[in-house]
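quick one, 304 residues, struct below
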Amino acid sequence: MPHRLIDLIGNTPLLEIEHRNSSRVRIGAKLEYFNPGGSVKDRPVKRMLLAAMESGALQGRTIIDATSGNTGIAYAMLCAEFRLPLELAMPENASEERKLILNLYGAKMHLTSPMEGTDGAQRFVQDLVQKQGDRYFYPDQYNNDNNWKAHLETTGPEIWEQSDGQVTHFLAGLGTSGTFVGTARYLQPKGVKCLSVQPDNPLHGLEGWKHMETAIVPGIYDAGLADDVLEVDTEDAFRYSIAAAKYLGLLISPSSAANLFAAIRLAGTLESGYIVTVFPDNAFKYLKDRFWSEHDYHIADPFH
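---
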């Protein structure tokens, strides 16, 4: 029986998603907000921190990393459990809910330019570590192999087992790319087609996602891994966040909705199959975002 917070990470449920093509193509979504920190980022942070503690690399240093929010929350939660000092760099326009959660966990935050996104947060941390390297331990989620290996060892096997080996397609959005890279490296050898999803332009509104052609490309990203690359417009993600709440009873984040939109669009091109995607987090950290009130709540049902 699990007896520590860190032991509760993983084994999230796979939910069947109703949609118009359900008779011939199934869609399943891994509900990663069932992790104790509320997101998929609990998985890589667990592996990165355990590896650092086991190697002795911390040696009393303060942990520091760049984040769009969810990785930072996972760090803050586990650093609180293990009594480890933590500093985070995060774009200033990250949701207020995320900032509040990080404050409650006791993490020190450095807010960076909203115009530079997570790339700016990365540059801030790299500069700080270069100047004060003896003070910090920098896991660097964008270049740490423990990131994708967490998904190779947990997310991929869970999807395979929960789908009874019936999954035919896997898709996930790209941020650090760890979820896609690790899960695809487990599923592809089993004959599963793996598709990455990214914003359709550099000036997108999908927090934490990267438009790889114009962003700082993570070192763990494998550009040749995807069988295909799908693109999602931010407005479609916003619409599907609202539609998922109204017609599926699911309060999901724009990132989760972007994956959902891509999965349903893919389903429309298939004769049969079982698509599995990931819902990285729910809507609870985005409820003050303006798109909820600026978009039409009378959106037509896109699922039935």
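The domain at 5-35+151-294 is CATH 3.40.50.1100 (Rossmann fold).
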